[in-house]
Design a protein that fits this description.
Layout (H helix, E strand, L loop, with lengths): L9 E2 L11 E6 L2 E6 L6 E5 H10 L5
Antiparallel strand pairs: 1-2, 2-3, 3-4
Length: 62
C-alpha cells in the first residue's frame, strides 16, 4: 500500500455537511482506501470489485 500522505484523498459526497462526519477515500492499486478524517491511523482497504459492487448499490441522491 502507498503511504497515506502520498495519496489523493477526497471527501465522500455522502459525508455530513456539519463537519462532524467526514469519510475520505483514495484510489490505490487494486482498490479503494477509506478513512475517518477525524481519526489518525485507521485505514480500510477494499478491493476493486467489492468497491464497485458497493458503489452500484448506493441509492442515488435526489
Amino acid at each position: 500500500m502507498t503511504a497515506s500522505s502520498e495519496l489523493d484523498w477526497f471527501k465522500s459526497s455522502y459525508s455530513g455537511g456539519s463537519g462532524t462526519e467526514c469519510v475520505e477515500c483514495a484510489y490505490a492499486d487494486g482498490g479503494t482506501l477509506i478513512r475517518d478524517s477525524k481519526r489518525e491511523g485507521a485505514i480500510v482497504e477494499v478491493g476493486r470489485d467489492a468497491w464497485m459492487t458497493f458503489i452500484r448499490r448506493l441509492p442515488i441522491p435526489r
